[in-house]
Design brief:
The structure holds 2 protein chains of 2 kinds. In chain A, about 75% of the residues lie in helices and about 0% in strands. Chain A is mainly α. Chain A has a single domain, classed as MetI-like fold (Orthogonal Bundle). Chain B has a two-stranded antiparallel ribbon. Chain B is globular and about 65 Å long. Classes of the chains: A mainly alpha, B mainly alpha.
Chain lengths: ~270, ~290
């Protein structure tokens, strides 16, 4: 059924309307970040760049920004190692529990965040580990592993193993083959996966609230703690735009790197 | 000298012993995901049977069904669970309706270049800015926000904060999760089937109902796994755009007060999702993920 002319126009209009629905709220929050009026009213009557400077000068916003950055970099690093190791194991070996492993990798992101968060919270507190930056990194890394795994395994399946065998036939050992053959072939997959993991971690709030304790605030947690304080709302708007940029730009770059492959199917 | 160096000997030995290589690859990830993560989930399950000593506030680890009795007897908890499931169902239905036209356009009308652009523009909001988007809706639904301003000339008001706002915002948040599977499902339908239906005399609406819908159903179910599961676990959206309680809010607010009760209540979405996933698998949704 190829839609006729009227149906095509209808579908085009519906598509434009859906895109507007998806992007207008994002546009609105960006506009509010430049709102000259400290009261959050619409329509916005004047614009200013002041709040950006003030948000950056604010101790709370800045330390939350750096906490988010540390958490995201830490979680991405851990996930890069764990995700690639699993991808190599699943790709190269046949072993008992292989299917189950692919399922366990997906579980932290398929289950509602609140379940992962609560489970980790109970485990940390039962074992007696203090909540802080380290536990946030553990929580984030757990749900970031899947994006690295997905990207790397997709790349490994697309590349032929013959070039690795050729490398070894020519006298390279496992390390040299990894360094000069395998790593270059998976490098963009690692980069794309790493960018997605960073983005997921940077704007995550649900697992974070359960694993952060009271000593550490990431940027999303700072927003969550301040959105009810009318005086802080202009800064909350700016903080929200910081989070938006640092999560949307990496996702965009990852999508460009992979042409969309590996970025679909979050679960 | 290189030939005999330790790394080189290790490499050769790993190559000759694939099992050792496998163990080396998997030791750390299995320790992390199976021991730490699955262990935590198991502990969550077990701790649902613990209880809080009401005098000392300490957790008592003798198994008891007390939490479940508390939850079953209380109208409040039951109503919260019902409210959450009803909103999850409404959100899922809304997203199916909203997702179809754009997914159909992407799969069947758009040129490959436009299709690529559309996929990226659906992916971006799927992956990023969750809290930012909820907060944006808080400003939009505000008494002096965009929605009331836009509706004012028509003599209408926005829903304000409350359950309708939760339905609206969650439908907004999870829409990309529904669009992408439906798009992929529609794209896989061979044109010949649609042409055959047309040749046999079916008009567009009938072809859609009798051919397209049954073929795309597994994809719709796949999308609904996300819309359902994400709604069941969300407590940020109800907190920001409503004063009403959802399953997530009860779990979150009990985490420091009564952990065993939080764990017991968290089993509600887990059980619902397990049942949902079993049904979804029967309907063939897993191939669409």
């Amino acid at each position: 059924m190829n839609p006729d002319r009227v149906a095509r126009i209808g579908l085009r209009v519906a598509t434009a309307a859906t895109l507007a629905f998806i992007y207008l709220p994002i546009l609105i929050i960006v506009m509010y970040a430049f709102n000259a009026d400290p009261l959050q009213r619409w329509p916005i009557t004047g614009y200013t760049l002041d709040w950006i400077g003030r948000a950056w000068a604010n101790e709370g916003v800045r330390s939350a920004f750096f906490a988010s950055l540390k958490a995201a970099i830490g979680a991405t690093t851990v996930a890069l190692v764990l995700g690639s190791l699993i991808a190599f194991a699943v790709h190269r070996h046949r072993f008992f529990g292989r299917e189950a492993l692919s399922f366990i990798v997906i579980l932290p992101i398929a289950l509602p965040g609140i379940i992962t968060g609560l489970a980790l919270n109970i485990a940390f507190r039962t074992v007696g580990i203090d909540l802080g930056l380290l536990t946030v990194i553990v929580g984030h890394a757990t749900f970031c592993v899947v994006v690295i795994f997905n990207n790397v395994i997709a790349r490994l399946r697309r590349t032929s193993t013959t070039i690795q065998e050729a490398s070894m036939d020519l006298g390279a050992d496992t390390w040299q083959t990894f360094r000069y053959i395998t790593l270059p072939t998976i490098s963009t997959a690692l980069l794309a996966g790493g960018l997605l993991a960073f983005a997921l971690s940077f704007d995550e709030i649900i697992v974070t609230t359960f694993t952060a304790g009271s000593d550490i605030q990431t940027l999303p947690i700072w927003i969550f703690a301040n959105y009810q304080r009318p005086n802080n709302l202009p800064l909350v708007n700016v903080a929200a735009v910081f989070v938006l940029i640092l999560s949307i730009v990496p996702v965009y770059l990852a999508a460009r790197l992979t042409g969309g492959a590996g970025t679909t199917g979050r679960g | 000298m290189i030939r005999g160096s330790l790394p080189r000997r290790l490499a050769a030995s790993l190559y000759r012993h694939p099992r050792a290589q496998l163990s080396a690859l998997l030791a750390v990830p299995l320790g992390w995901l199976v021991v730490a993560y699955l262990g935590s989930l198991a502990l969550l399950l077990v701790s649902a049977f613990w209880r809080l000593d009401s005098f000392s506030g300490n957790v008592i680890t003798e198994p008891t069904l007390q939490n479940f009795a508390t939850l079953a007897e209380s109208d409040v908890y039951r109503n919260i669970a019902i409210r959450t499931v009803v909103i999850a169902a409404l959100v899922t239905l809304t997203d199916i309706i909203l997702a179809f036209p754009i997914a159909y356009y992407m799969a069947r009308v758009a040129s490959p270049r436009v299709r690529g652009l559309l996929v990226v523009s659906i992916l971006l909001p799927l992956w990023s800015g969750y809290l930012v988007k909820v907060y944006a809706w808080r400003l939009i639904l505000n008494e002096s926000g965009v929605l009331n301003w836009a509706l004012d000339p028509l003599g209408l008001r926005g829903p304000g904060y409350g359950d309708p706002a939760v339905w609206l915002v969650m439908s907004y948040l999870w829409l990309p999760y529904m669009i992408l599977p439906i798009y992929a499902g529609l794209e896989r339908i061979p044109s010949s089937l649609l042409e055959a239906s047309g040749d046999l005399g079916a008009r567009s609406p009938r072809t859609f109902r009798k051919v397209v819908l049954p073929l795309v159903l597994p994809a719709v179910v796949a999308g609904s796994i996300f819309t359902f599961s994400l709604t069941l676990g969300d407590y940020i959206t109800p907190t920001l755009v409503s004063g009403t309680q959802f399953i997530g809010n009860v779990v979150y607010s009990n985490i420091s007060v009564n952990r065993p009760l939080a764990a017991a209540y968290a089993l509600v979405p887990i059980v619902i999702m397990i049942v949902y996933l079993l049904v979804a698998r029967r309907l063939g949704a897993f191939e669409e993920l």
